[in-house]
Every structure is written in structure tokens, then in C-alpha cells.
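In the previous chapter we treated chains in isolation. Here, by contrast, the input contains four separate entities that must be folded as one system, with a combined length of 408 residues.
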Amino acid sequence: MKPRPAGGEGRTRSQILDVAGRLVQSRGFNNFSYADIAATLSLSKPALHYHFPGKAELGLALVQRYDQRFFEALSTVDEKRASVRLEFYASLYISVLREQRMCLCGMLAAEFKTLTEPMQQSVVQFFDRNTEWLSGVLTQGMNEGTFSFDGSLSDRAHVIISSLEGSMLLARLYDDLDILQTTVTHLLAGVTASQLDEITDSAM
Amino acid sequence: MKPRPAGGEGRTRSQILDVAGRLVQSRGFNNFSYADIAATLSLSKPALHYHFPGKAELGLALVQRYDQRFFEALSTVDEKRASVRLEFYASLYISVLREQRMCLCGMLAAEFKTLTEPMQQSVVQFFDRNTEWLSGVLTQGMNEGTFSFDGSLSDRAHVIISSLEGSMLLARLYDDLDILQTTVTHLLAGVTASQLDEITDSAM
DNA sequence: GTCTATAGGCAGATAGAC
DNA sequence: GTCTATCTGCCTATAGAC
């Protein structure tokens, strides 16, 4: 008589993920406890275990939701030009850091060795999907004539992901969003076909 | 009658730092215990407390030693050309990852929010020194005519540090040293004065 | 400098009532 | 779904003997 709303997740479950997410993205997966979440939500610890049997299951749900939301956001610019899509991709990292958070999967990448197999696989999958998405955008940009760069698609995708993840680390350390912003500008310039290229082309 | 050898640190103390260092660089500062170190060295936990009163002191010593060794290594190329010095800088990151380790301060940067004030300051100082050292090398390279790039010295230094740190994260995730190697190549190319620049110069 | 023994706290997790 | 009560284990740290 009171079926779960289709596609719904349950209010409490969702709130738990919200609080846990913020904790992981600022302190790391191994540096918060069920007690922290319970206190924030004025719940008891066993209530948490009802929704997520163990911390590993909570962590897995966290990555899967992050992954889903991330690519859902990216899908809103599917029809745009490559340069717009790439700028939007970078803006997601900036938005996260502006909320005083780190990338969830970046944090988990640092703690990788301490994660359960399922969590490790989900984290890898997130970066796989990032690499694939970026490769698509880079290809699109070359076809549109706005992008130009050396090396393979996946290599360049990895450079972009690495720079953004590393830059977030540094930007938080110095509490300076500009460090990330500068990296973004640099990355965009690094793939943008410039007048320089045109000069080079005509010179050959 | 048995004074500490000048500049010496004590065998046991040094061994503790060795073991702790490897643990932090693979699992993170909050994901290992005194028990882990004690077991590895066949010592008791209180023996560890004799050398380092608390975990925070151990962590601080760890960062300071890492910092010292890092810049000691860099000093061996003080007299070289900028391109050699920058390649050597990058090779340090590669060496660390090849030993199945992450950058100590990169790991601590991820756990930054959970560290004591003194540890936080030491980590920041490490990256300060990196930024400064890189700025010096970049300046030298421009003076030598082998480097050329846009933006400020510190911005470029931050881009280099960020890329290397982020790239280590990704490379370990995929157990693929080439991911870091590719980033290094890309960074070096990004600051190297190319024939492209000469063409541009003559075109202006 | 290193040990045994142990304190005191917090972690993740379970039993069973409501 | 949520609670109180509790378990077990591990953590950092200390006391005090050798």
C-alpha cells in the first residue's frame, strides 16, 4: 500500500549518502565513522546498518551514486561543441572544490589499497568512463577543427584527469581555488587549435 | 662512552621511519598502526613510543625526512642544465612509484584535514619548496633559451606538481607506470622551446 | 631501550524489543 | 525502520619492571 516511489531511494538512505559523501570527500573513507553520520542525522548507528549492512556497502553505493550523477551532469552537454563540453567537464571539478569537497574517487584513489575489491572496481570504472568520455570529446574537437594535440586520445585524457585530480589536492592545501582554475585554463589551451598551428601548417 | 654518531639518527629510529614510510606511502597515514610497525620489526609497541611519543610525532619526522632526502637528491643536479634538472625532478616521482609507493606528501595531502597542525605545516612547506625549486629551474631554462612557456613561474610549477601527483594516483590505480611516464613527457614538452616557437618568432 | 601488562576509547557490527 | 544495549576487536598510549 506504500510502495517505494519508482526509482526512488528512500529519504533516509539518501540522507545517509549525503552525509557520508561529504565526510569521504573531505576526510577520506577510513577517517569517518558510522557514529559521525548517526550524530549528524540524529539517528542511531544500527539504523545506518539497516540501510547499509557494512561500511563497504555504504562506500560502494557512494561511488555508484557519484558516478551516476557525474555522467548525468555531463550528458546535459551532449549536443554541444567539444570545447563547451570540455569546459563543462572541468567546471564540475571546480564546483566540487568550491563546495569544500575533493573528488570522491580521487580520495578513494589515494586510499585505494585499503578498499574492498568491489569498491576498487567501481573506482577504476569511474576513471575508465572519464577516460572514455574525454576521448570522445577530444575526437569531436579534432573533427570540428577546434582541437589539436599530440599523442593518443587516452594519453591526453589521462593527462587531463591527472592534472585536475592533482590540482584539487594542491588547491585545497593552499585554500586557493585559483590553483585549480589555472590548471583548467592550461589544459584547455593545451588541446585548443591555435593560430600557432595554422602558421605551422602554412609553413610546411 | 657511546655517543650518538654525529648526524646519526639511531638504527631503530631509522628502521621505524623506513617501515612507517612505506606504510604511509601505500595505505595512508590513518590506515596503519603501531602494531603493524612493531610486527614488521619484531619490536613491541611501547618500544615505538620510546622513539616517537605519539603517532603525530612519527608522522612529522616522516615528512621532515622525506623533505630532506628529496631536496638532497635534487641538489645533486644543481650544476646541470635546466632541462636535465627538470627531467631529474620528474624521475624522482617515477622512482618512487616504481618502488610501489606513492609520494608521501601526496598521500598526506589527501588526508590533510585529518592531520595535526604541525604535520599540515610540514606538508605545505614541502610543496612550497617544490614550487620554489621548480620556479628556479624554469627561470634557468628560459635564460638558457631551452624553455619557453606561458603564464607565471609559480603557476607552471603548480601545474607540474599537480600533474605528477595526480598521475601517480592514476598510474597506481591501473598498475601502469606508463601513465606517469606519458605525463612526464608531456610536461617536458610543455616547457621546451620548440622549433614551433622559432617559426612563430620569425613570423612576428 | 626494550619488555609485559593493561588502561581507555572508539571502531564496525549484532541481538532483540518496539 | 528505528531504538537500547552490548559485543568484540583494534587503536593509541601509559605504568612500571628489567
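Chain B has a mean pLDDT of 94. The two ends of chain B are 74 Å apart (CA to CA). Compare these points with the single-chain example from earlier in the chapter.
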